[in-house]
Structure formats: structure tokens, C-alpha cells
């Protein structure tokens, strides 16, 4: 679900202090987009939302979430946005976020 190698790589690249800021920005931006998906009535912009989420997820190692977003982006691009399981996308994000934050808290405490 989470690519912990990517997390370690990013943390090493930017340092622990800046990593915390990156995580904070990531969570704020993605939480905002997920809130949009929860209340989505107009799916005309779904491809760009899924693209944004995919890229954000890849940057922070949310691999399973990124995969679902890639599938959704492709479906939306092909005109099949109505068949994207947004509930599954949102649930995957919620689960990934919980796993990530739990492990991150343990890492920070160590």
C-alpha cells in the first residue's frame, strides 16, 4: 500500500525537517481533493483531479492509491468517468493515510 523505500528516499533527499513540511502540504492538498471527490456532482474535471492525486500519491509513496488514481485518470480520459469507483479511491486514500501516519509517528518517536 505504501512504498516505504520511496518515503526513506524522499526523507533522505530533503532532510527530516523539510520532510515534515512536505507531508503536511501533501495531506492538506490531497485532503482537499478527496473532499471534492466526496461531494462530486460534475465529473467533467475528473481526469485532471485523478491526475493530480496520482502525481501527489507517487511523490509520497502512496502506491496503491496512485494505482487507483491512474486507472481513474485513464477511464476518465476514455470517456468512462461514470464507472470510476470513487468510493474505492477514497477508501484507499483513507487507509493509506492512516497506515502512513501510524508508521510515521512510530518513526518519529524512535
UniProtKB/TrEMBL annotation:
InterPro entries: HPT_dom_sf, Sig_transdc_His_kin_Hpt_dom. GO terms for molecular function: protein kinase activity. One of its GO terms (biological process) is phosphorelay signal transduction system. Gene3D superfamilies: HPT domain. Keywords: Phosphoprotein, Two-component regulatory system. It comes from the Bacteria. The modification Phosphohistidine is found at residue 51. Residues 12-110 form the HPt domain. It holds the Pfam family Hpt. The keyword Phosphoprotein applies. SMART domains: HPT (SM00073). This is Hpt domain protein.
Amino acid at each position: 500500500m505504501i512504498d516505504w523505500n520511496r518515503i526513506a528516499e524522499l526523507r533522505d533527499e530533503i532532510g527530516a525537517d523539510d520532510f515534515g513540511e512536505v507531508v503536511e502540504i501533501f495531506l492538506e492538498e490531497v485532503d482537499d481533493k478527496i473532499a471534492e471527490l466526496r461531494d462530486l456532482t460534475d465529473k467533467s474535471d475528473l481526469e485532471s483531479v485523478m491526475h493530480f492525486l496520482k502525481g501527489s500519491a507517487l511523490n509520497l509513496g502512496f502506491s496503491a492509491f496512485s494505482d487507483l488514481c491512474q486507472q481513474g485518470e485513464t477511464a476518465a480520459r476514455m470517456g468512462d468517468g461514470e464507472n470510476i469507483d470513487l468510493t474505492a479511491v477514497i477508501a484507499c486514500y483513507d487507509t493509506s493515510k492512516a497506515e502512513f501516519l501510524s508508521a510515521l509517528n512510530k518513526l518519529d518517536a524512535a
